[in-house]
Amino acid sequence: MARSSRRACRTTLPAACAAFAAAAVLAGCGGSTENAASPAASPVVDLPAGTLVKDGQITYCSDISAPPLTYYDAAQKPVGAEIELGDALAAQLGVKANWANTAFNGIIPALQAKQCDAIITQLYIKPEREKVVDFVPYMYASNTFVVSAKDDKGIKSAGDLCGKKAAAQTGTTVADYLSAQSKKCVADGEQKVDIRLFNKDTDALQQLRLGLVDSYGTTLETAAYVMKQQPDTFQLVGEPFNRIKVGAATRKDDTALHDALTKAFAEIRKNGEYAAILKKWNLTGDDIAG
Predict the structure, then answer these.
(1) Is residue 77 exposed (0-12), middle (13-18) or buried (19+ Cβ within 10 Å)?
(2) CA 168, CA 196: separation in Å to the nearest integer?
(3) Pairing mode of beta strands 165-169, 215-219
(4) For residue range 42-51, what is the model confidence (pLDDT) as tens digits?
(5) How many CB atoms lie within 10 A of CB 164?
(6) 3-class SS at 237?
(7) Which parts of the sequence belong to the Solute-binding protein family 3/N-terminal domain (predicted)?
């Protein structure tokens, strides 16, 4: 997808999720929503007056279209793991969180134009981006393998894929990973991985659901949402791979907010909120400490 490394790596969501997300984005596109979560009674982290675009409120630019990280629920309220993380950070600063739905390809310009205070939207930390914004790393994005919950076919890691059928979406980092793993299998004297590539991620998942392949490779985030929607149907195997850090972006000249968010993030890790959010959304594999 156009989010380049963000979306191309994550691939697409299950068909029902994609339809729901698309409808939700159309309903909320360009909008700004203040979450009801109350700010901390007394801020844990001091934020100098005048730091935020609007006093008492931190506005996050976010492309709210990516379950389970950011999406709209049936009531058109922003929900997801990143939404909860942003709300938790706001509480540490003693302010309310406001979510401004922003197209991903214009999200950094929106920040620079002070349409928001920070970006939280699975923005990969890349050298070219670090030249124009500062980051507060808060999680990883990664890939994983999914197998049937009833029969894992003996697959416990990528090394067990030799001679097995593995599905993935064409053009993704998972497809490249499978190709490299297949070559390794052959070099080790084992059968190559029987790689089945599909134009849609949903088609690759369907192959596993029907038992036509032994594993399905996708992003951990997509897999987490699939498992949340279809509990007891699938399971993850092996350790997450192709990991890249994701961070909250602030303007280069806004060191006060960058430092405050850094302290706020340290606090929610310390008090257990961070771990609880990742666990709730099946994203413990993306823990920044992992």
Answers:
(1) middle
(2) 7
(3) parallel
(4) 678 989 889 9
(5) 18
(6) strand
(7) 57-285
